[in-house]
Structures
1.
Amino acid sequence: MTSILIIEDEHAVASALGAICKRLGHDAQLCSSGQRGLEELARGDFALAILDIGLPDMSGLEVLKQIRRRAPAIPSLIITAHGNLDNAVAAKKLGAAGYLVKPLDLPEVQETIRQLASPAAVPTPSVQASPSLLIGAAPAMQRCFVEIAHACTSDAPVLISGPTGTGKTLAARVIHTNSARSEAPFVTLHCSALPEHLLESELFGHEKGSFTGALTSREGHLERARGGTLFLDEIADISPAIQAKLLRFVEERTFTRVGGREDLRVDLRLVTATNKDLREEVRAGRFREDLYYRLHVLEITMPALRERPGDIAALATYFLGSIGGTQPRQLAPATLDLLQRYTWPGNVRELRNALEHAIAVSSGGVILPHHFPRELRETRDAAPAPSDVLDTALGAWLQRQLAAGASYREMHDALESMALQHLLAHFGGKPTVLARETKMNRVTLRKKVLRLDRGESAIPDGEDEG
């Protein structure tokens, strides 16, 4: 029986991971601190190490670094309740074979452990990297961070999809900067900005005299990106003729300049992006299916800002600090409410532009709603305020409970149970973290959780309806 080392300070999470390991036929060694885990590593022979980033005595990334130095043959699976792009990339840099964000999907955890603990599993090679500016705590962004981290440690083609203004170019730069090609050029070409004949010349280059005005031979973007990364933005807009030439390059790594006869060969990594549904473009006959499959070996989907309103405060704070000059600025509560209700058709780029406008017209340190453009303040696309949505939903729920004859105690317990479940999920199933972040007494929280788990009332006797 093979052994798996689990380094996790939350007993419930560690026990669940241990149960999954045993279900898969492995012995599980549980450790609640980084130091204890490293001591067990020195004494045992493990097929896999599972570790949390948020350990009580040291960062899980530091533990991972020690594991990679002491036992490089052991694959490692990182789990974390506070995923961000820097952590995801750092984990892949240090050789993590897997990276999962809490709350954990147990079938996904089981399948990941099964794969990594097999004899064929090997650690991911380490790559030098630098931090990125992508920001977001929403689940959609957490998934995106993991996809970007995978792309950083691969040389396969990447297709980045998502609406305009979501950061596709920034994601491409992050992938290049954190890849093995980071010392070579990063070259960008916006395919929708040029007519077909100019795009072909810019991409593949041309020979002298190949068309009117071609007074000299010229390298194209393919040759300029030699050894590095070529980023083709809005790839869905290229013509069928250019698609055919690009397919040849992707398959054979060779191409011919416009007006040329010589086959040229270039080694580079291709990253493409589109704000269209490329699968739909294939179905409509506007994009070659064979080229599509060649380009989306790895795919990253950038979420729209309206899908992650909880990230707006962090994004706004970052932009205010980076474009606000020397005068510190902050958002008034009403301003943040306005920004979170707006649907942002231009996404993160539109948010930055709106904040630049607000900074330009404001004179003090507090950004108010009237500092923003009129179309943002008066848009019909504004969604109801979160408080209004909650109030409406709660009112309807209470009416149903009253109609069913529920007591105040029953309604209170149901609401508190839902609140605790959501909060525990938000904090990765860790009651100690929940208690600390919400300033609740840890013992009180544990009593509430146990009482609700047993189906008992959360209201002490003598303190209910009267």
2.
Amino acid sequence: MSDKPRTLLIIEDDPALQKQMRWAFDAFETVVADDRESALAQLRRHEPAVVTMDLGLPPAPDDVTEGFRLLGEILALAPDTRVIVLTGQHDRENAVRAVGMGAYDFFAKPFEPELLTLTIERAFRLYDLQLENVRLKAQQGSALAGLLTRDPMMLKVCRTVEKVASASVTVALLGESGTGKEVLARGLHALSPRAKERFVAINCAAIPETLLESELFGYEKGAFTGAVKQTPGKIETANKGTLFLDEIGDLPMPLQAKLLRFLQERVVERIGGREEIPVNVRVVCATHRDLKAQIQAGAFREDLYYRLAEIVIDIPPLREREGDAMLLAHAFVQRFAKENGRGSLHLAEDALAAIEAHPWPGNVRELENCLKRAVIMADENRITADDLGLASAEEELEHLNLRHVRDEAERRAVVRALARTNGNIVKAAEVLGISRPSLYDLMNRFGLKKES
């Protein structure tokens, strides 16, 4: 838990009630504000963990416009702050609206100080737990933290990465563009004994052929026009660490021969140099191309393929990863909403259906860009299919197919329900029409982990 004093910001324009609240909540370090501007000033100065606020604020205390404007600004400036809204006795509509915007809870006036104190205490505990969770995640630093999946094939890929990371073998990551090849390559490095050394990446398709050789192998001073100093290449720079050769399928044939010699001899010669420089490096490569087809077409050396592909990991495209599109979509919405100060955003039903129906030819990268744009473009606190720029798709009913075994049908239903509800066990159980214990039993049976 945090050792920092627990600061409570009280936003109330009635001086008598303000004084009463300071007295009632003297267990906290209280600061007060009586209008929107002073509240924002106190928020920036004290960074309170919890805020109580009246929706009726000057210049029109009988109107909630100023209060809702302030609530939105608080949630944008400090999204982790817990806001407890105080409303009129019969003002349930505005209370529900406030919670929908992202307020933690609401209380009707006049309130019982003891009950409100309990709610404030609970809000502080939740805030502290959230900070502790962030700290523990940072401490843990999972090597595959950037990869979010529930799909069995993708989970198998992750287990393979964890197994081969410590072995001194060359790994080839094969998959379509945008499937997460570099995330896995960095995971291989982070889980290996070379984790404290450098991870050096080079995209073989992004550099012109005339420059790629000098980028990979380096050059001596005077080796060609413009070579004004001795420059080590990427291979040499990665010594003792990991070299990631992205889009290896686009490597020109002359450089394939030179790379093969390096992999066999583990020495490099800079352009214009005669000295053989030994390099101890772990090589990981990736490509979206079919290397075996390229070998048949004479565009890729077979001997180089077998040097690079000591371990081959095939990464499934997003369209084949059950439930992952929606799982990732929920995560991207939360991340980009926070980055763009959009407060509480969620995906509407037509957006969920459109995401599920879209084939995602650009895979996770396409999905990420689509959600980033949608978060910016959404007019309300929900994202629609129009915001995504995708065609709306009607939900299709699951058709009973007697050729499929019951277990497979149940597993698919559980995966879809968990994805649609963003891992919420209670909601997923309701969608499936079963109890929570029954859902936990099914998840255990199918090897599906509950998201933390």
3.
Amino acid sequence: MRTRPIALIVALLACISFAGCGKSGPDPASFRYQQDPKLSHRLLQPADYPAARFIVLTDPHYYHPGLGTSGPDFARYIREDRKMLALSDEILEAAASEIQKEPTDFILICGDMTKDGERINHLRVAEKISSLHPTADIYVVPGNHDVRNPEAVRYTNEGSHGVATVEPEEFSEIYGAYGYDNAIARDPASLSYVAEPVDGLWLFALDSCLWRKNRAGGHPVVNGRFSDKTLKWLEEMLIQARKNNKAAIAMMHHGLVAHYPGNEKYYGEYVVDHSEAIARMLAAYGVRLVFTGHFHAQDITVKQFADPIGPVFDIETGSLVTWPCPWRKITISAGQTCTIESRFIKAIDSIPEGFAEYARNFALEGTVGLARDALEKYHVSEKGMDLLAPQIAEAYLAHLAGDEQKPDTVISAKGTGIMGRLVLFFQKDLVEGWWTDLPPPDNRLVIDLESYSWQQPDDS
């Protein structure tokens, strides 16, 4: 069983109690910046950001076709998941052909490199991303699918069979050229590291995944959390960045903050545990920009803290293999502005025309099917399913695309029958949340890194 936004619709609609997915584990230890007055004074003198141009993409979920694309188990996987796995190679190639044209200093990939951590997929995607750009350095972090995954399998017409996954040491070896070999520092307790992609800018590449909890024969852990050891290492490196007058950005797989109302209540696995404390700590050390993935949505959310800490922006990018198949172009100017632009894959070799429509229909039809399956378990009528499932799917796709425009009626129970109205009574706040676009804008944005104000650029 795999857990992800589309598949979770089944579990959420099937649970009448709709209790939130609670966060477990101890609160992180107190941070030094909260206890040391001298350190607090140093935090009031942040370094300016150097000029930098970079690309962000995430969740390529690369899948080697040699692992099989037929049989009942593969069909079941796609039905429950709806990522365009069979097209992942072509989509990555299409992204590379576009990114190669962009002048850029470096590229960030925020995890979920592979379908389910298959070693053959890691080896192949590591080779493929080398061609993303002729000159730019590339930096990766693991996602929840990538390391020690017990669901690494090969598909045949008869079923599925386990294949080799990777241990953490293998992950850092396979992706050695993509951050690990040239890191300024590495965390002994995780796959986190620090790099300097351009002079004066430190990148905190953070491993938020719980691969240590994965067990053979079980299911991979989706949730994200930093251990106390990693948090201690992280704060020490942030202090070193400040002492060396280095500006800082971060990337991680899990969301740093909630991206819509109900995010942590319904989909707690998609926001890192103790997000408030960690976001505050990063902001206190001047990390204004954090790049994330995991939920497969185009969404930017700002977490505001009172002066002198200031805000932190969680810039979440959607998956390459899920509509709208995005990547982002980021430009930081010496004048302390950050311009964020979004690009979308419009064509691949096998679908040179109409790919965007194909990808949207792929996601929409799959989400409708999953919603119908869940509604049927609670004896919602055929007519009720016909009415509710498309509304649920459209809300979810609106969040995937970003810059949601909430309709006057987010979902209607009219004509759905008693059970349809009951399910909607418990579930409406999630659907409403998907339609709610928390500030700032999601796809095109200019942030003033001194005043922390923002604006959406004109089309011109």
